[in-house]
Amino acid sequence: MKKLLVPILGLIFIFLACSKETTPPEEPTEPSAPQNLIASEGDLCVTLSWEPSGSEGEENFAGYFIFIANHSITGLSSFSELLPYLGNDTPIDSTSYRIENLIEDSTYFVHIRAATNEGGGYLLSDPTEESSFTARILLPAPEGIGFEAGEEAITVSWQHCPKDTLADFAGYFLYLSTRSFELIDEDSLAILRYNAVPTSDTAATVAELSEGVIYYFAVSSVRNKNGEYRESELSEEVDAAVVRLGDGTIYEYFSGGESGFDFSDGMPLLMTSENANFVDIYLGTVAENDSAGLLCLKSPHLVSDPSPVWNSVISRIKVLGDGAFSDYTETDDYGWNTEEMEVVLAGRTYCVKTPDNHFVKLAVTGTYGLFPERYITFRYSYQPVINYGKF
Known about the structure:
Layout: H1 2-22, E1 35-41, E2 46-51, E3 61-69, H2 79-82, E4 96-99, E5 107-118, E6 121-124, E7 131-134, E8 146-149, E9 153-157, E10 169-177, E11 203-207, E12 215-225, E13 228-231, E14 238-240, E15 244-251, E16 260-262, E17 267-269, E18 281-285, E19 295-298, E20 316-321, E21 341-343, E22 349-353, E23 359-368, E24 375-382
Antiparallel strand pairs: 1-2, 2-4, 3-5, 5-6, 5-7, 8-9, 9-11, 10-12, 12-13, 12-14, 15-24, 16-17, 16-18, 18-19, 19-21, 20-22, 22-23, 23-24
Protein backbone atom coordinates (compact mmCIF):
# COMPACT_ATOMS: atom_id res chain seq x y z
CA MET A 1 0.00 0.00 0.00
CA LYS A 2 2.72 2.43 0.84
CA LYS A 3 4.29 1.96 -2.61
CA LEU A 4 0.98 2.85 -4.36
CA LEU A 5 0.07 5.89 -2.22
CA VAL A 6 2.58 8.38 -3.62
CA PRO A 7 1.79 7.75 -7.31
CA ILE A 8 -1.91 8.02 -6.70
CA LEU A 9 -1.51 11.31 -4.82
CA GLY A 10 0.75 12.55 -7.60
CA LEU A 11 -1.96 11.85 -10.17
CA ILE A 12 -4.47 13.72 -8.11
CA PHE A 13 -2.24 16.80 -7.95
CA ILE A 14 -1.61 16.63 -11.70
CA PHE A 15 -5.33 16.34 -12.38
CA LEU A 16 -6.14 19.31 -10.15
CA ALA A 17 -3.44 21.38 -11.77
CA CYS A 18 -4.69 20.55 -15.24
CA SER A 19 -8.26 21.31 -14.19
CA LYS A 20 -7.23 24.75 -12.86
CA GLU A 21 -5.36 25.61 -16.05
CA THR A 22 -8.26 24.73 -18.31
CA THR A 23 -11.05 26.59 -16.33
CA PRO A 24 -11.95 29.72 -18.39
CA PRO A 25 -11.86 33.06 -16.49
CA GLU A 26 -15.19 34.58 -15.42
CA GLU A 27 -16.47 37.45 -17.56
CA PRO A 28 -16.74 40.71 -15.53
CA THR A 29 -20.28 41.84 -14.85
CA GLU A 30 -21.09 45.44 -15.70
CA PRO A 31 -22.52 47.53 -12.84
CA SER A 32 -26.20 48.33 -12.66
CA ALA A 33 -27.19 51.72 -14.04
CA PRO A 34 -28.09 54.69 -11.82
CA GLN A 35 -31.67 55.90 -12.12
CA ASN A 36 -33.86 59.01 -12.25
CA LEU A 37 -31.45 61.70 -13.37
CA ILE A 38 -32.65 65.22 -12.50
CA ALA A 39 -31.02 68.33 -14.01
CA SER A 40 -31.67 71.53 -12.01
CA GLU A 41 -30.72 74.55 -14.10
CA GLY A 42 -28.91 77.53 -12.59
CA ASP A 43 -27.08 80.63 -13.75
CA LEU A 44 -24.97 79.22 -16.64
CA CYS A 45 -24.70 76.02 -14.64
CA VAL A 46 -26.62 72.84 -13.90
CA THR A 47 -26.80 70.61 -10.84
CA LEU A 48 -27.31 66.92 -11.56
CA SER A 49 -28.70 64.42 -9.07
CA TRP A 50 -29.63 60.77 -9.44
CA GLU A 51 -30.51 57.62 -7.55
CA PRO A 52 -27.53 55.35 -6.83
CA SER A 53 -26.53 52.25 -8.73
CA GLY A 54 -27.44 48.94 -7.16
CA SER A 55 -23.75 48.05 -7.44
CA GLU A 56 -22.70 50.52 -4.75
CA GLY A 57 -21.01 48.68 -1.91
CA GLU A 58 -19.41 46.04 -4.15
CA GLU A 59 -15.65 45.65 -3.74
CA ASN A 60 -14.69 46.91 -7.20
CA PHE A 61 -17.29 49.69 -7.45
CA ALA A 62 -15.49 52.88 -8.55
CA GLY A 63 -18.23 55.52 -8.65
CA TYR A 64 -19.92 57.57 -11.36
CA PHE A 65 -18.93 59.27 -14.59
CA ILE A 66 -20.82 62.26 -16.00
CA PHE A 67 -21.00 62.69 -19.75
CA ILE A 68 -22.02 65.97 -21.40
CA ALA A 69 -22.22 66.98 -25.06
CA ASN A 70 -24.05 69.29 -27.43
CA HIS A 71 -25.83 66.32 -28.99
CA SER A 72 -27.20 62.98 -27.82
CA ILE A 73 -24.49 60.43 -26.96
CA THR A 74 -26.43 57.67 -25.23
CA GLY A 75 -25.90 55.49 -28.29
CA LEU A 76 -22.16 55.31 -27.60
CA SER A 77 -21.06 52.36 -25.47
CA SER A 78 -17.28 52.03 -25.21
CA PHE A 79 -15.24 54.14 -22.86
CA SER A 80 -12.98 55.25 -25.72
CA GLU A 81 -15.99 56.58 -27.66
CA LEU A 82 -17.34 58.41 -24.63
CA LEU A 83 -13.99 59.81 -23.47
CA PRO A 84 -14.27 63.16 -25.36
CA TYR A 85 -17.51 63.91 -23.52
CA LEU A 86 -16.30 63.07 -20.03
CA GLY A 87 -17.33 65.63 -17.43
CA ASN A 88 -15.15 64.34 -14.60
CA ASP A 89 -11.64 62.83 -14.91
CA THR A 90 -12.08 60.27 -12.14
CA PRO A 91 -15.24 58.58 -10.84
CA ILE A 92 -17.09 60.41 -8.07
CA ASP A 93 -18.71 58.63 -5.13
CA SER A 94 -21.59 61.10 -4.61
CA THR A 95 -24.95 61.12 -6.40
CA SER A 96 -24.90 64.81 -7.34
CA TYR A 97 -22.63 66.94 -9.50
CA ARG A 98 -22.51 70.60 -10.51
CA ILE A 99 -21.36 71.71 -13.95
CA GLU A 100 -20.46 75.39 -14.29
CA ASN A 101 -19.26 77.88 -16.93
CA LEU A 102 -21.77 76.78 -19.54
CA ILE A 103 -22.29 78.84 -22.69
CA GLU A 104 -25.50 80.87 -22.87
CA ASP A 105 -28.11 79.58 -25.33
CA SER A 106 -26.15 76.34 -25.90
CA THR A 107 -28.13 73.12 -25.59
CA TYR A 108 -26.55 70.30 -23.60
CA PHE A 109 -27.27 66.59 -23.28
CA VAL A 110 -26.14 64.82 -20.11
CA HIS A 111 -26.28 61.30 -18.69
CA ILE A 112 -24.64 59.34 -15.89
CA ARG A 113 -23.01 55.89 -15.86
CA ALA A 114 -21.75 53.80 -12.95
CA ALA A 115 -18.22 52.35 -13.20
CA THR A 116 -16.32 49.40 -11.72
CA ASN A 117 -12.56 48.78 -11.70
CA GLU A 118 -11.67 45.89 -13.99
CA GLY A 119 -8.01 45.03 -14.64
CA GLY A 120 -6.77 48.60 -14.57
CA GLY A 121 -9.64 49.93 -16.63
CA TYR A 122 -13.27 50.86 -16.08
CA LEU A 123 -16.36 48.87 -16.95
CA LEU A 124 -19.36 51.16 -17.49
CA SER A 125 -23.04 50.59 -16.81
CA ASP A 126 -25.83 51.48 -19.15
CA PRO A 127 -26.63 55.19 -19.11
CA THR A 128 -29.35 56.92 -17.17
CA GLU A 129 -32.09 58.48 -19.21
CA GLU A 130 -30.60 61.46 -21.00
CA SER A 131 -31.50 64.98 -19.85
CA SER A 132 -31.22 68.03 -22.09
CA PHE A 133 -31.38 71.75 -21.28
CA THR A 134 -30.37 75.13 -22.66
CA ALA A 135 -27.98 77.23 -20.57
CA ARG A 136 -29.30 80.61 -19.45
CA ILE A 137 -28.14 83.61 -17.48
CA LEU A 138 -30.62 83.72 -14.61
CA LEU A 139 -31.49 87.16 -13.31
CA PRO A 140 -32.39 87.36 -9.63
CA ALA A 141 -35.83 88.77 -8.90
CA PRO A 142 -35.87 92.22 -7.29
CA GLU A 143 -36.02 92.25 -3.50
CA GLY A 144 -37.25 94.69 -0.89
CA ILE A 145 -40.52 95.45 -2.64
CA GLY A 146 -42.63 97.98 -0.73
CA PHE A 147 -45.44 100.46 -1.25
CA GLU A 148 -46.77 103.87 -0.27
CA ALA A 149 -50.52 104.29 -0.54
CA GLY A 150 -52.07 107.55 -1.65
CA GLU A 151 -55.40 108.80 -2.93
CA GLU A 152 -56.21 107.03 -6.22
CA ALA A 153 -52.52 106.04 -6.54
CA ILE A 154 -50.01 103.63 -5.05
CA THR A 155 -46.24 103.96 -5.40
CA VAL A 156 -44.34 100.66 -5.52
CA SER A 157 -40.59 100.54 -4.89
CA TRP A 158 -37.89 97.85 -4.94
CA GLN A 159 -34.14 97.34 -4.71
CA HIS A 160 -31.71 97.23 -7.63
CA CYS A 161 -31.07 93.86 -9.28
CA PRO A 162 -27.50 92.74 -8.44
CA LYS A 163 -26.93 92.07 -12.16
CA ASP A 164 -28.03 95.46 -13.43
CA THR A 165 -24.49 96.05 -14.72
CA LEU A 166 -24.90 93.46 -17.49
CA ALA A 167 -24.52 95.05 -20.92
CA ASP A 168 -27.97 93.90 -22.00
CA PHE A 169 -29.75 94.62 -18.72
CA ALA A 170 -32.97 96.44 -19.69
CA GLY A 171 -34.63 97.28 -16.35
CA TYR A 172 -37.80 96.08 -14.67
CA PHE A 173 -41.37 95.09 -15.43
CA LEU A 174 -44.04 95.98 -12.86
CA TYR A 175 -47.05 93.68 -12.69
CA LEU A 176 -50.47 94.70 -11.39
CA SER A 177 -53.42 92.45 -10.55
CA THR A 178 -56.58 92.42 -8.42
CA ARG A 179 -55.82 88.91 -7.20
CA SER A 180 -52.74 87.16 -5.88
CA PHE A 181 -50.13 86.17 -8.47
CA GLU A 182 -50.08 82.74 -6.84
CA LEU A 183 -53.48 82.19 -8.47
CA ILE A 184 -52.42 83.33 -11.94
CA ASP A 185 -51.05 81.05 -14.64
CA GLU A 186 -47.59 82.03 -15.87
CA ASP A 187 -48.83 82.22 -19.47
CA SER A 188 -51.30 84.95 -18.44
CA LEU A 189 -48.74 87.27 -16.85
CA ALA A 190 -47.87 89.31 -19.94
CA ILE A 191 -51.25 91.06 -20.01
CA LEU A 192 -50.72 92.16 -16.39
CA ARG A 193 -47.59 94.22 -17.11
CA TYR A 194 -48.10 97.81 -16.05
CA ASN A 195 -45.24 99.17 -18.18
CA ALA A 196 -45.01 98.15 -21.84
CA VAL A 197 -41.21 98.49 -21.88
CA PRO A 198 -38.81 97.93 -18.98
CA THR A 199 -38.18 100.87 -16.67
CA SER A 200 -34.72 101.68 -15.35
CA ASP A 201 -36.21 103.21 -12.19
CA THR A 202 -36.69 101.27 -8.95
CA ALA A 203 -40.07 102.84 -8.21
CA ALA A 204 -43.30 103.37 -10.11
CA THR A 205 -46.54 105.17 -9.29
CA VAL A 206 -49.74 103.47 -10.43
CA ALA A 207 -52.54 106.05 -10.77
CA GLU A 208 -56.30 106.06 -11.30
CA LEU A 209 -56.91 103.17 -8.93
CA SER A 210 -60.32 102.48 -7.44
CA GLU A 211 -61.14 102.95 -3.78
CA GLY A 212 -62.10 99.82 -1.88
CA VAL A 213 -60.09 97.44 -4.10
CA ILE A 214 -57.02 95.50 -2.97
CA TYR A 215 -54.29 95.48 -5.62
CA TYR A 216 -51.36 93.09 -5.92
CA PHE A 217 -47.94 94.10 -7.26
CA ALA A 218 -44.82 92.17 -8.28
CA VAL A 219 -41.64 93.08 -10.18
CA SER A 220 -39.27 91.20 -12.49
CA SER A 221 -35.73 91.98 -13.66
CA VAL A 222 -35.35 92.09 -17.46
CA ARG A 223 -32.60 91.63 -20.06
CA ASN A 224 -32.93 92.53 -23.72
CA LYS A 225 -31.18 89.65 -25.51
CA ASN A 226 -31.09 90.54 -29.21
CA GLY A 227 -34.56 92.08 -29.06
CA GLU A 228 -36.01 89.33 -26.86
CA TYR A 229 -37.01 90.19 -23.29
CA ARG A 230 -35.72 87.65 -20.79
CA GLU A 231 -37.12 87.99 -17.28
CA SER A 232 -36.34 86.80 -13.82
CA GLU A 233 -38.91 85.10 -11.68
CA LEU A 234 -41.42 87.50 -10.12
CA SER A 235 -40.46 89.15 -6.86
CA GLU A 236 -42.45 88.50 -3.74
CA GLU A 237 -45.80 90.17 -4.20
CA VAL A 238 -47.09 93.05 -2.12
CA ASP A 239 -50.72 94.05 -1.77
CA ALA A 240 -52.07 97.51 -1.07
CA ALA A 241 -55.17 99.69 -1.46
CA VAL A 242 -55.66 103.42 -1.95
CA VAL A 243 -56.50 105.57 1.06
CA ARG A 244 -58.12 108.87 1.96
CA LEU A 245 -55.64 111.42 3.22
CA GLY A 246 -56.51 114.43 5.32
CA ASP A 247 -55.74 116.85 8.12
CA GLY A 248 -57.78 117.65 11.17
CA THR A 249 -58.11 119.79 14.26
CA ILE A 250 -60.04 118.79 17.39
CA TYR A 251 -60.48 120.46 20.82
CA GLU A 252 -60.46 118.85 24.20
CA TYR A 253 -63.87 117.66 25.38
CA PHE A 254 -64.04 120.09 28.32
CA SER A 255 -63.87 123.05 25.90
CA GLY A 256 -67.33 122.24 24.57
CA GLY A 257 -65.96 122.47 21.02
CA GLU A 258 -65.64 119.87 18.30
CA SER A 259 -63.64 117.18 20.03
CA GLY A 260 -64.73 114.18 17.95
CA PHE A 261 -63.67 113.23 14.45
CA ASP A 262 -65.26 111.26 11.61
CA PHE A 263 -62.47 109.88 9.40
CA SER A 264 -64.72 108.52 6.65
CA ASP A 265 -66.07 112.02 5.94
CA GLY A 266 -62.95 113.86 7.15
CA MET A 267 -64.75 116.24 9.51
CA PRO A 268 -64.71 117.19 13.22
CA LEU A 269 -67.88 116.66 15.26
CA LEU A 270 -69.39 117.73 18.55
CA MET A 271 -69.66 114.89 21.05
CA THR A 272 -73.45 114.86 21.09
CA SER A 273 -75.64 111.77 21.10
CA GLU A 274 -76.91 112.69 17.64
CA ASN A 275 -73.36 112.22 16.33
CA ALA A 276 -72.70 108.95 18.15
CA ASN A 277 -72.90 106.84 14.97
CA PHE A 278 -70.29 108.99 13.22
CA VAL A 279 -67.57 109.71 15.78
CA ASP A 280 -64.45 107.50 15.43
CA ILE A 281 -62.21 109.09 18.07
CA TYR A 282 -62.29 112.08 20.39
CA LEU A 283 -59.86 114.23 22.34
CA GLY A 284 -60.26 113.83 26.10
CA THR A 285 -57.92 113.53 29.06
CA VAL A 286 -56.70 110.76 31.35
CA ALA A 287 -59.48 111.68 33.80
CA GLU A 288 -62.73 109.72 33.49
CA ASN A 289 -64.73 112.94 33.17
CA ASP A 290 -62.12 114.48 30.82
CA SER A 291 -61.25 117.24 33.28
CA ALA A 292 -57.74 118.67 33.64
CA GLY A 293 -54.93 116.21 32.89
CA LEU A 294 -52.89 114.85 30.01
CA LEU A 295 -54.62 114.95 26.64
CA CYS A 296 -55.63 111.56 25.26
CA LEU A 297 -57.05 110.15 22.07
CA LYS A 298 -59.97 108.08 23.34
CA SER A 299 -62.60 105.66 22.14
CA PRO A 300 -66.03 107.36 21.87
CA HIS A 301 -67.62 105.00 24.42
CA LEU A 302 -65.42 106.56 27.14
CA VAL A 303 -67.07 109.97 26.85
CA SER A 304 -68.72 111.18 30.07
CA ASP A 305 -72.07 111.86 28.30
CA PRO A 306 -74.55 109.59 30.15
CA SER A 307 -76.50 108.75 26.97
CA PRO A 308 -76.41 104.93 26.40
CA VAL A 309 -76.00 105.40 22.64
CA TRP A 310 -72.26 105.71 23.22
CA ASN A 311 -71.90 102.30 24.90
CA SER A 312 -71.44 100.37 21.63
CA VAL A 313 -69.31 102.99 19.85
CA ILE A 314 -65.92 101.41 20.58
CA SER A 315 -62.67 102.19 18.80
CA ARG A 316 -59.27 100.56 19.30
CA ILE A 317 -56.07 102.60 19.51
CA LYS A 318 -52.35 101.96 19.79
CA VAL A 319 -49.01 103.72 19.22
CA LEU A 320 -47.16 102.97 15.97
CA GLY A 321 -44.06 104.98 16.83
CA ASP A 322 -42.26 108.31 16.72
CA GLY A 323 -40.86 108.02 13.18
CA ALA A 324 -41.96 109.72 10.00
CA PHE A 325 -45.56 109.34 8.86
CA SER A 326 -44.42 107.37 5.79
CA ASP A 327 -42.52 104.88 7.95
CA TYR A 328 -45.74 103.10 8.88
CA THR A 329 -47.49 101.48 5.95
CA GLU A 330 -49.28 98.60 7.65
CA THR A 331 -50.27 97.07 10.96
CA ASP A 332 -51.97 94.01 12.39
CA ASP A 333 -55.01 93.62 14.61
CA TYR A 334 -52.98 93.20 17.80
CA GLY A 335 -51.34 95.37 20.43
CA TRP A 336 -54.28 97.66 21.12
CA ASN A 337 -54.27 99.63 24.36
CA THR A 338 -56.66 97.77 26.64
CA GLU A 339 -57.83 101.09 28.12
CA GLU A 340 -58.96 102.28 24.64
CA MET A 341 -56.95 105.49 24.95
CA GLU A 342 -53.44 106.81 24.28
CA VAL A 343 -51.73 109.91 25.69
CA VAL A 344 -51.18 112.57 23.00
CA LEU A 345 -47.61 113.48 22.08
CA ALA A 346 -46.72 115.77 19.18
CA GLY A 347 -44.72 113.92 16.53
CA ARG A 348 -46.12 110.52 17.52
CA THR A 349 -48.05 108.31 15.08
CA TYR A 350 -51.01 106.24 16.22
CA CYS A 351 -53.30 103.63 14.73
CA VAL A 352 -57.05 103.73 15.23
CA LYS A 353 -59.48 100.97 14.38
CA THR A 354 -62.86 102.63 14.05
CA PRO A 355 -66.16 101.23 15.37
CA ASP A 356 -66.98 100.05 11.83
CA ASN A 357 -63.58 98.29 11.47
CA HIS A 358 -61.57 100.68 9.29
CA PHE A 359 -57.88 101.20 10.04
CA VAL A 360 -56.56 104.77 10.33
CA LYS A 361 -53.00 106.04 10.66
CA LEU A 362 -52.94 109.32 12.63
CA ALA A 363 -49.89 111.51 13.30
CA VAL A 364 -50.19 114.36 15.80
CA THR A 365 -48.54 117.40 14.21
CA GLY A 366 -49.02 119.84 17.08
CA THR A 367 -50.58 120.51 20.52
CA TYR A 368 -51.74 124.02 21.44
CA GLY A 369 -53.50 126.15 24.10
CA LEU A 370 -54.21 125.87 27.81
CA PHE A 371 -56.85 123.91 29.69
CA PRO A 372 -59.75 123.86 28.97
CA GLU A 373 -59.14 125.28 25.48
CA ARG A 374 -56.38 122.93 24.34
CA TYR A 375 -56.47 121.45 20.87
CA ILE A 376 -54.37 119.30 18.55
CA THR A 377 -53.68 119.17 14.83
CA PHE A 378 -53.03 115.93 13.00
CA ARG A 379 -52.76 114.28 9.61
CA TYR A 380 -54.30 110.92 8.84
CA SER A 381 -54.61 108.12 6.31
CA TYR A 382 -57.97 106.32 6.30
CA GLN A 383 -58.31 102.87 4.73
CA PRO A 384 -61.76 102.38 3.10
CA VAL A 385 -61.36 98.59 2.92
CA ILE A 386 -62.84 97.00 6.04
CA ASN A 387 -60.45 95.06 8.31
CA TYR A 388 -57.49 95.81 6.04
CA GLY A 389 -54.50 97.09 7.97
CA LYS A 390 -52.55 98.80 5.21
CA PHE A 391 -52.48 102.58 4.91
